[in-house]
Amino acid sequence: MRMKKKQKKKKSPVPLRLNLLFFLVFVMFSALILRLGVVQIVYGEDYKKEVERTENVTVSTAVPRGKIYDRYHRIVVDNTPLRTITYTRMSGSTSEERLKVAQQLAQLIDMPTEKITERDKKDFWMLLNGDRAKKKITAKDRQELKDKKIDDAEVYKRQLARITDAELQELPPAQLEVLAIKRQMDSGYTNTPQIIKNKDVTPQEYAIISENLDKLPGVDTTTDWDRNYAYDNLFRTVLGNVSSADEGLPVDRLNYYLVRDYNRNDRVGKSYIEQEYEDMLHGTKAEVKNVTDQKGNILDTIYVSKGSRGKDLILTMDMELQKRVEQIIEEELKAAKATGETMLDRAFVVMMNPKNGEILSMAGKQLVNKDGKQEVQDFALGTMTSSYAMGSAVKGATVLTGLQTGAIKPDTVLVDEPIQIKGTKPKKSWKNMGPIGIQTALQQSSNVFMFKTAMNIAGVQYVPGRSIDVKQKTFDMMRMYFSQFGLGVPTGIDLPNESSGFKGTADQPGLLLDFAIGQYDTYTPLQLAQYVSTIANGGYRIKPQIMKEIREPSTTTGEIGKVVESTEPVVLNRIDMDDSYLKVVQEGFRMVMQTPSGTGASLFMKAPYAAYKAAGKTGTAETFYDGPVDSLRATPVYNLTLIGYAPDENPEVAFSVVVPWMKNDSNAVNKKIGSRILDAYFQLKKEETAMEVSPSLYGETGTETGAEAGNQ
Which catalysed reactions does the entry list for this protein (predicted)? Predict the structure, then answer.
C-alpha cells in the first residue's frame, strides 16, 4: 500500500505544463490571425495605397514680385492680387482624364473662349468624335502609312484638314468652355501649376472650387498677381513689362532662367527695369510637395515652404518731377506742332545729378495719329534708344579737344568769317562775328571758330578757295576725346538695349567741319546729359544710375524694408586734361545763359530762371528727316537741342533737351522746355526738402564724388 501511494506522488507534472503551453500558443496564434484579418480586411486598401505611394519632385509656385518705389518711397509699381484657379498636370495624366476634369470645371466656372484657335477646335472635335475621326482616314492613307511613305503625324494632319466648318459648328458654347479649360491644362508642364483662370474669378467661383477640390484631381485655388502702375503711363516704356502666364519664360532666354530654377511658365521681367532687376524682383518661390500614387494621382500635399515676395526696388527717380517734366514736354510739343511743324512728333528730356549720376527724370513724348485723332504716347525709352545730330550743344567737347591737343590755347583768338573750301559751298556762322576767343565763341555759338579748331587739330593750313587734306585719324582722334565725355559710347546706365549712336563712315574734309559742330555723328539724349554732367562736375564721367537701393519686402503696414544693397557713384573715367581748360568752357557755358549776348539768355536771364544761375549750351543741327513717315525722308529739318546745369558754381542738376525734325530753327521750343523743367526742379526742391530721405537728393551724396574719383 505504501508503495502505491509513493508511486502516485511521483506522477510527472509534464502533461499539465504542456497543455498550458499549447493553450498559450493557441491564444497567440488566434490573436495573430485576428490581427492579420483586421489588417487585410479593414486596413488592406490603405496599406496598399501606402505601399504604392511615391513622392514627386517638389512643385514651385510663383510669389508676387517686389514693388518699385521712387526715391521718396512713393509707390510706382505694385501688385494687385487675383483669385486664381490652377491645374497641376501629374506624370501619367491622360488626355481623357484631363477632359473629365475640364468638364467638371466647366460646370462650376465661366471660362473665356476668345483664345481658342481653329486648330484647338479641330483637335477637340477629334477627341470627342473618335469614330467619326477614324473615318477621316482613307484607304489610301492607310496604305501609304503601311508602306512607310507617311507617318502618324501626317495621317493626323490629313484628318484635321478634312474636318469641315459645319462639323466645327457642332461644338456648342458649353463645349467651347470645356475646350478652353482643357487647352490651358494641356499647355502646362508636368508637376508645374498651370493657371486656368485668374481674371474675373468671382468669389462664388473661388468658393465652390475650393469646396470641391477633392473631386477635382490636380485643381487648386490660390492667389496670383498682376502689375499695377500707380502713375499709369508715366515712365511706362522704361519700367518695362512682365510676361504673362501664357507667355512664360522668353524663348531667347529660356536656358538662362531654367538653370536658375525657374519653371517654364513663370512670369518674368521681359524688358528694361523689370528685366534688369529680375533676380531681385522675382522673389523666392513657395514649394509644395505632392505625394502621389504610382498612377500619378495626388494623395497628399505637403507645404515645404511658403516662399517670400520679391525684394523692393527703390529708383533714383523723383516721380513728381517726372510728372511735371512730362507735362511740360507734352504742352510745348503740342504748342510747337500747332505752328505748322508737320514733321515734329517727339521731344526728350534727361535730368540727372552730375555729382553721383542718379537719374532724376527720363522723359520722352511722341505724337501719334490714331483714327484721325492726335494722341500723346510715352517715349521715355527714346532717351537712350534713339539718337540724333545734336548741333552746337557739342561745341564744348570740340573746344576741349582743341585745347587738349594743343590746336588752340585758352587765349586763342580766331576770326569768324565764311569758310570757302575748294569745290564746296561757303560754310559760316549765323552771323559774322570777327575776331573772337573761346568763351565768346561758345556764348554766341560760332561755327567758324569750331571749323578752324578742327582744321588745327587735323594739322592743315586753311587758305580760302583751296582744298584741305583731312585724314581718317583726325576723325578717330576727335571721337576718342568726345568719348571721354560719353559722346558716341554707351553711358553705362543700368538698363539693357542702350544705343551708342551712329558714327559717320566717310572722311571728306567738309564732314570733319560738320562733326565739329555736331552735324555728322548722332548721340542719344542720355549721352548728351552725361556729357554736360562731366563738364559740370569738373571732368568726371559718372555712370548714370536708375537703381538707388534694393530693400527687403515692405511690410503689410506699408513700412519700407531694410536696405539690402545700395548704389555708390561710379566714375567711368576722369577727363585727361588741365582743370583750367574745363573752367574756360564752364565760363563760356555760363555766358550762354547769363549774359545778354548769350544764345540762351532770352529765357534764362528772365525771372525766375535767372535766380537758378544756369550754365549751358544751345544747339541747332541742320540735318534731314529720318522719321517714321517714308514720304518725308531726306527732307531738310532742324534738330533743336539744349544742355545745361544749375547752379553754375555748385551744380546739383544737369539736363539735356532734344526736339528733332523742326522746320523753323527760330522756334524756341528747346529753351522753353529747358527753362520750365529747371523751374519745376527748384520748385519741387522747396516742397520736398522737408521730406525725410536718406541720402538726400540735392548734393550731399555727390559732394564726395570728386574726391573719391581723385583717389581712383
Answer: Preferential cleavage: (Ac)2-L-Lys-D-Ala-|-D-Ala. Also transpeptidation of peptidyl-alanyl moieties that are N-acyl substituents of D-alanine
Instruction: Identify which of 663, 672, 612, 613 has the alpha carbon closest to the alpha carbon of residue 639.
Output: 663
Alpha carbons 482 and 410: distance in angstroms, whole number:
19
- Most confident range (mean pLDDT) of 99-103, 300-304, 586-590 is 586-590
The 8 Å CB, 24+ separation contacts for 207-215 are 208/108, 209/85, 209/105, 209/108, 209/109, 212/108, 215/104
- pLDDT at position 33 is 81
Residue with grid cell 518695362, as numbered in its chain: 240
* 38, part of any domain: no
Q: Any idea of the CA torsion for 510, 512, 515, 520, to the nearest 10 degrees? A: 60
Peptide bond into 203 cis (omega under 30): no
> Residue 582 half-sphere exposure, CB side, CA atoms within 13 Å?
19
Q: How far apart are CA 85 and CA 205, in angstroms?
A: 9
Supply the pLDDT for residue 695.
44
Position 1 in a domain: no
Please report whether residue 511 resides in a domain.
yes
Which of 20-34, 272-286, 381-395 has the least mean pLDDT? 20-34
**Which H helix or E strand runs over 243?**
none
Q: Pick from 584, 657, 585: which is nearest to 351 by CA? A: 657
- The three state secondary structure string of 387-417 is CECCHHHHHHHHHHHHHHHCCCCCCCEEEEC
Which tens digit of pLDDT belongs to each residue from 213-237? Answer: 988 988 989 888 899 999 999 999 9
Q: Are residues 272 and 343 in the same domain?
A: no
Options 361, 392, 533, 554, the catalytic residue: 392
The answer, yes or no, to whether residue 489 has pLDDT greater than 60, is yes
In this predicted structure, the answer to whether residue 705 has a pLDDT above a threshold of 50 is no
Report helix, strand and coil shares of the chain as percent, to nearest 5.
40, 20, 40
The pLDDT of residue 252 is 87
Averaged pLDDT for residues 255-267: 85
Strands 615-624, 571-574: pairing kind: unpaired
Residues 75 and 164 in one domain: no
Considering the domain architecture, whether residues 553 and 587 belong to the same structural domain is answered as: yes
Q: How confident is the model at residue 577 (pLDDT cuts 50, 70, 90)?
A: confident
What span, in angstroms and rounded, lies between the C-alpha atoms of 599 and 442? 9
**pLDDT tens figures, 121-141:** 999 999 889 999 999 999 999
CB under 8 Å to 175, separation ≥6 — which residues? 124, 128
Same domain as 298, residue 246: yes
pTM for the model stands at 0.82
- A 10 A CB-CB count for 471 gives 14
Q: Which cell is 25 given?
A: 500558443
Q: Domain containing 108: what range?
A: 94-189
- Total of domains in the chain: 3
CB atoms within 10 A of CB 156: 15
Which CATH number is 258's domain given? 3.90.1310.10
More confident residue, 426 or 300: 426
- Please tell me whether residues 391 and 516 are part of one structural domain: yes
Residue 31: inside a domain, yes or no?
A: no
319 within 8 A of 105, measured Cβ to Cβ: no
Q: Give which of 588, 648, 583 is closest to 614, Cα–Cα.
A: 648
Task: Return the CATH number at 181.
Answer: 1.10.10.1230
| Least confident span in 34-43, 366-375, 579-588 | 34-43
Is residue 392 part of the annotated active site? The answer reads yes
**Residue that is written with C-alpha cell 503601311 in the block:** 146
CB 502 within 8 A of CB 479: no
Q: Are residues 155 and 267 in the same domain?
A: no
Amino acid 390: pLDDT: 98
Taking residues 184-201, report their average pLDDT: 86
